[in-house]
């Protein structure tokens, strides 16, 4: 089974606290690491979680607030110290690309890897695509331009049934064709249907990241039908007015988006530092969308196995 793991490095909001770190996640896609937001302390958390810096290939920055990008200069500098040779692409708004490019050219001139800035805008578009996964942006509704990221696995190949292939003397060189769905024709011309030689492929998993944003039904439209949704839940019901004024969401707002989108599992995060107990946020969300869980630093979620 192909690896698709979500590592939560930080799930707090802007004001620092001793309970949570600023926003950062690392998605492990078949041992290639993709980072989503990069708050302060990110590189230390990667070390603590034994996530190899050398495997980091892409960094997706949702918007230009410090709690989502202030960890970037240190992380990019450290990559030169671990002799990273492959490229790193930072997907970021134009102002951020300009500022961080200047900073890295000043503090880290002699990089041993290629640093690429891919400029994103509010307009949804495909920002990454390979044989395993695609990444699209979708618009969020915050005080500054912001986007979410939608990760979709590509359809996977079917599994070989070893007993059946042995029975019909299928040669090894044809196995890849079987995985792609082709029938097998014996030397005598008998057609063996693919379904008799293989079993169904593992499901392709989708994951959407939405932080920061006020409640908006267009977010639900953008993430409709995904398996996993991470949605900011900065506040509880008692602070709904503050959430609206600051273009954030409550836990109940996040649950509304999950319900309207028909997702399978909701993960809450981006908690205000005012909450020492997160259970009320979870309760409020589960009243609307029962399949909700809290994000916590150190979580490693197997998105393939744990989807409900």
List the helices and strands and how they pair.
Layout lengths: L3 E7 L13 E6 L2 E7 L3 H7 L7 E5 L5 H4 L2 H10 L6 E6 H14 L7 E6 L5 E4 L3 E7 L7 E7 L5 E2 L1 H6 L7 H5 L4 E2 L5 E2 L5 E2 L6 E5 L6 H6 L5 E5 L7 H6 L5 H11 L3 E5 L9 H10 L3 E3 L5 E3 L6
Parallel strand pairs: 3-4, 4-5, 5-6, 14-15, 15-16, 16-17
Antiparallel strand pairs: 1-2, 1-18, 2-3, 7-8, 8-9, 9-14, 10-13, 11-12
Helix pairs in contact: 3-4, 9-10
Keywords:
308 residues, alpha/beta, seven-stranded mixed sheet, 10 helices
Give an account of the 3D structure.
The protein is an alpha/beta fold. It has ten helices and 18 strands. The strands form four sheets. It has a seven-stranded mixed β-sheet with strand order 6-5-4-3-2-1-18. Strands 7-8-9-14-15-16-17 form a seven-stranded mixed β-sheet. Strand 5, helix 4 (94-107) and strand 6 (115-120) form a beta-alpha-beta unit. Helix 3 (72-81) packs across helix 4 (94-107) and helix 9 packs parallel to helix 10.
Strand content: 25-35%
What is the ordering of alpha helices and beta strands? EEEHEHHEHEEEEEHHEEEEHEHHEHEE
Report the structural category.
alpha/beta
* Mean of residue pLDDT values: 95
| Cα distance spanning the termini | 17 Å
Helix fraction by DSSP (H/I, runs of at least 4) = 25-40%
Low-confidence stretches: none
Number of helices: 10
**Strand neighbour order, sheet with most strands:** 6-5-4-3-2-1-18
Tell the overall outline.
Answer: globular
Biggest β-sheet strands, sense, barrel: 7 strands, mixed
Number of strands: 18
What oligomeric arrangement do these chains adopt?
single chain
Rg is: 22 Å
